[in-house]
Known about the structure:
By secondary structure, the chain is α+β, with helices and mostly antiparallel strands. The protein is built from eight helices and 24 strands.
Amino acid sequence: MIDAPLGTPPNNTRLVSAPWLLLVLVAVIAGGIGGAATTALLLRPENAALGATLSAGAPGQLTLLEDSAVVEVVKQVGPGVVTIVAELDSPRRLRGATTPETASGSGVIVDRRGYIVTNAHVVAGARSLAVVFADGRRKEAEIVGNDVPFTDIAVIRVKQEDLEPLQLGDSDALTAGQRVIAIGSALGDFRNTVTQGIVSGLHRTWRGENVLMEDLIQTDAAINHGNSGGPLVSTTGQVVGINTSVIRQTQGGEAVEGIGFAIPSNTVRLVARQLIEKGKVSRPFLGISHQQINPALASFYGLPVKSGAFIFQVSANGPAARAGVREGDILVRLGNEPIDDSHPLLNVLMKHEPNQKVPVIINRDGKELQIEVVLAERQ
């Protein structure tokens, strides 16, 4: 630096100062442009979160902060997630000795009186059950009931009445691309394993070994053996689904990655409430066999509507038959709700009660008819 008063530099420095001054000006201008560009980049709405996670570290460095939202959700939800160990009825023989065969899964505390939601397939065939809490405590449990073959939901109970239940959120408010967190006992040994992903799709249908499930949440959050029955959680800490299955390969043997399914929390709420109160689910019975219609099927078969439930069988003397429903009719509305991919018939039926009179709109030969059906109870 030249030690000189402000103003015109001394004559012997004039030629030396000009190039340096030019370089300084260029550096300042470049820095200003770069800083402005960086500021503009961070001020863009899509990069606002990125800007919030950057903080100054050592001079000339930027440090990426931990995602505190996910950390806080895991802290909040973790104590309400349990490991379920089932001793099965089918013992196995090992080196000439008979040892009990066990299976494991996960569960969610939903009621302070000791009620826990899990998957029906986790506890199927269990001779005895035990629950291991997040803090390592272990308690014996009993099966309250299940909803097979309509959903893969079961409720079990431990004898403790001061548990802190997790909050069930509104799964109807989910959107594709929304970030979610899966928590469960991966492989049965790694309690409260946390994985993260997004909602990959909604209203999916999946056929398991003993169950056909509709209106599922699809996610790419990793779900491993032992995660079944654990929660799928939003970034606000609400349970939006119960993890139930994952596709690992196609029927042709092609490997599949990142396709898992969860039962929506709104379905869980309806089913769990009845299992806790009655030990069973009282499902309304319409007395039909149907195929859900989507736009592709409607176009292929030349149907007069793009959505609904195509009725290919009507039970003799059932509620639908008594109301005048025929084979070949298309049920397009039940009560106040349309029947479509977002509102599968079985889900809409669950919002009604046995013996309730419900208005139904059907499409018959391209014309809409409104009738009333008195629902029965499925036996």
